[in-house]
Amino acid sequence: MKKRIGIMGGTFDPIHIGHLILAEKAYEELALDEVWFMPSGNPPHKQNREGRASDQQRVEMVRKSIADNPHFRLSTEEMHPDGYTYTYETLERLHKKYPDQTYYFIIGADSLYDFDTWCRPDRICKAASLLVATRNAVPEESLKEQMLYLEEKYKGNFIQLHTPNLEISSQTLRDWIRQGKSVRYYLVDEVYTYIREEGIYRA
Ligand code: ATP
Ligand code: MG
């Protein structure tokens, strides 16, 4: 039997409980063996932007968030010294490295509407099934329609997850921190402390 690996890709700037709950629910619903958190690399022009965490800090926040969960893992597969890699390249690389695994790429509904603009959606669909979570009250009808559209266009396997709808985004958390508002409980405790100690998102 092939190992079933969920891939949770994202900027994770910062990683929040929305990401963690989504990954845990995907793990449970699809009976995955592991979920790998894969922070995306930043192209050179997006390094060290004001009000953002560095690559190293984003990785550190992911590490802290998943430390106590035995079926979560950190993967720095997309952290390239010379910038970022495309999702399809990453997934194809994983197939080569670990041929005895099947991959489930986890995305929120907003990413489903961007999917058409990603590089080589056809190759992503060949390399992985797509697990889709509702987000920010995207109407069920519209989500189903978009999944069908992409399924036909790219011959993909799109599976809807039954996750709770958590109104939370990294953008909101960055804004709140900059404004001096509390983001406590939206993040794992260790990450909350780390952000304060490092003074991230203050600028
Ligand atoms: P930003 O606000 O900076 O875009 P984000 O909160 O959307 O950040 P990302 O790192 O962009 O976080 O998200 C990674 C993946 O997790 C995406 O597929 C996104 O759709 C999904 N995701 C993030 N937050 C949620 C949430 N609250 N519910 C469902 N999916 C989510
Ligand atoms: Mg996002």
Task: Please characterize this protein's 3D structure.
The protein has one domain: HUPs (Rossmann fold, 3-Layer(aba) Sandwich). Helix content is 41%, strand content 16%. β5, α6 and β6 form a beta-alpha-beta unit. The longest helix has 15 residues. 37% of the residues are buried. Bound molecules: adenosine-5'-triphosphate and magnesium ion. Adenosine-5'-triphosphate binds next to α1, β4, α4 and α7.
Question: Features of this protein?
Answer:
about 200 residues, binds adenosine-5'-triphosphate, binds magnesium ion, 6-stranded parallel β-sheet, alpha/beta, Rossmann fold, single chain
**Uncertain segments of ≥5 residues (pLDDT<50)?**
none
Radius of gyration: 17 Å
Main structural class: alpha/beta
- Named at the architecture level, the CATH assignment is 3-Layer(aba) Sandwich
Helix content: 40-55%
SS element count, helices? 8
What is the CATH first-level class name? Answer: Alpha Beta
Number of strands: 6
Element order, helices and strands?
Answer: EHEHEHEHHEHEHH
Strand content: 15-25%
Main sheet attributes: strand count, strand direction, barrel closure: 6 strands, parallel
Look at the structure and give the mean pLDDT.
94
Number of domains: 1
Bound molecules: adenosine-5'-triphosphate, magnesium ion
At the fold tier of CATH, the topology name is Rossmann fold
The backbone outline, from C-alpha atoms, is globular
